[in-house]
Amino acid sequence: MKLLKRLGLGVVVLSAILLVALMAWDPLTVSSSPPPPVRDYEARIVRDEFGVPHIFGKTDADVAYGVAYAHAEDDFDTLQEVSAMARGRMATLNGASSAPIDYVRALLDIDGIVKRKYDALPDDVKAVLDGYATGLNAYAEDHPDEVALSGLFPVNGRDIAAGFVLRSPFFFGLNGPIQALVENRDPPREGGPVLQGLPKEKSIHPLSEDKLITPVGPNPDENGSNAFAISPERTPDDKTRLISNAHQPLRGNVAWYELVVHSEEGWDFAGANFPGSPFPFLGHNKYLGWTNTVNRPDLIDIYKLTLNQTRNQYQFDGEWKPLEKKRVWLKIKYGPFVIPYPQMVYRSIHGPVIMNDKGAFAIRYAGMDQLDMLTQYFRINKATNFEEWQAAMAGQGVPATNFVYADAKGNIGLFYNAMFPDRAPGFDWRGVLPGDQSAAVWQQTLPFTRVPALINPASGYVMNANNTPYTAAGPGDELEPANYSPLMGIEEDETNRSLRSIVLFEEAIKNGGKIGEAEIRRIKYDTAYERAGYAEDWFDKIAALDLENDPKLAEAQALLAKWDWNLDGEGAADALALMVLRPANKAHYQRGKIPDPQQILQETVDHLTEYFGAIDPPMKDVLRLRQGDVDLPLDGGNDTIRASTLWDVEDDGRLSVRHGDSFIMFVEWARDGAVTSRSIQPFGAATTRPDSPHYTDQMQLFVDHKLKTVYFDPAELEKHKTSDKVVGN
Known about the structure:
Strand 12 and strand 13 (337-347) form a beta hairpin. The protein is built from 19 helices and 27 strands. Among the domains are: 300-365, Penicillin G acylase, beta-roll domain (Roll), CATH 2.30.120; 533-709, Penicillin amidase (Acylase) alpha subunit, N-terminal domain (Orthogonal Bundle). It is of the alpha+beta class. Strands 19-17-16-8-7-6-5-2-1-27 form a ten-stranded mixed sheet, with helices on one face. Strands 3, 4, 20, 21, 22, 23, 24, 25 and 26 form a nine-stranded mixed sheet that branches. A six-stranded mixed sheet has the order 12-13-14-15-9-18. Helix content is 32%, strand content 22%. Helix 5 packs across helix 7, helix 9 (372-382) packs antiparallel against helix 10 (386-393) and helix 15 runs antiparallel to helix 16.
């Protein structure tokens, strides 16, 4: 009895000690980043009537300081999340749902990449990163009540770089193979011809989704953007036009934030960035501009390793190599506690390794051990002509994404930018590769001169809508696929948006030869589907269903048969078509199995009937743009040029859009070089500040297809400013 009591008491005491330890674990063990080097910063933040920050500084680093401070004023919550992600503390901030992000960060060896590569960055780039980090630290110090996680600040330039290198590969789909391998599934592949025989998915209807790996960039099924550039010869007013229409989540760590910067060192730019970036990713300066769309070449290779019996070595060129192994601790918040959870991460000469029931698989991907995207983005921000811009692009830091370019001289172009692996022939690069042969492990990427590019085509326009680069400028002006090696894994996919864009551009040229303001607005806000491709196949499958014994579904089938193929919100079948089309588009985009059309039709009919009492409610009653107390109707769909891509199903059954048309910018250069631009965002400049007048002030304009003026000229800004302050340390 005494022994039992002693053991029982010991358990109680041990539990109490453990409880205290768990409560104190994170604050006591987290290692804060050293602050950036001490220097003085001063930036002026001027806001226009829509709250868009215009940041002025003597140096580029001063401007970066102001960018961080201004962004924190509008959305410090998201900036904290990005900082936690860069530091491997997402699960400490948000709980178990974010633990996969911290695991992936460790798996990809983000700390090691930054340690190896950061010091080699140019001094001016490091100065900008440190300035931005210091601005974040200053805001956190000025507003300690808003800091959600102890020890998160200060951050430094290395932390900012870590956020870039972690998020970058997810834009070309790295989360796909990682998740598949973790789940013991065959990895999906991007690029190249469409593959057959992919594993059947469970229901992909928009009413039921779950994902293991929470992405730090866009999901493969969420990617989408439109980009257009038009030469002055094709416009009635001799203006070069650039239309930026990147589709991103409307909130979160890859949502667009609009800003304008002016540095006395020559950094003048209007555009948008993501939280955690000191510089815009798209937009324009005085001389030139560009926008991006996600592309999906095959930039990821998977290798099956041959392990020894103890699983601590792998075979490579007839020798046994040690498998690197490291224990990492994911610190996960559970209620008031932070619990350390151990995980092993592995690495081979190929790259990160995932162990599963089928063996050990190594992953090699474009840009996996470099930070050059930081230099490239900063250099193209400051380029003053096409030659400088192309020279910066040739640095090949950004591993993947299309660039659509335009400038004041009238040049336009599409660049299918990617760091293509220099693969050796003789291997099935579309499958799982042998991990025991060095010949299968590429060591470098192809030069920028090999990147598919279409410059100044005779058609007078270029476009991309997440489609193959072989469709970009209309019949007779396209790139020739035979000129590019199949080892590059260039995608051959089309989207409805690409098909519609070409049709609409060609119609405009046929009708008048010129593409002016009215034509380009008509194209940008188009809500129609082409009767072609996956959409046509999908509706053929629905039409072929035998629904004689199900009158309700037969009624829906008949309604869809009369649909006008336009999601403008005016037709009786629009809500029904909107919802049944999304699963088909997702399967097409992911190259997955087509879902059961009867199941999707049934789920959609059930939903509309339950919440709206009919299968034909007005689509704009169903599809909504919601923020705070503002609730507005939307048009467009999952793969229309006017994009309402993804939505949350809310308690009232309505679809609250969370992804699609986000930051939109129209840029024009006159023949004399004068640049003007207009823009719009779905909500406003302060997306997480309900008390701000800029929480919802752009919503009505966005819904009405209207744009606001960008006051790129500081003299013009002075007439419209609503606040003006200086920040510094």
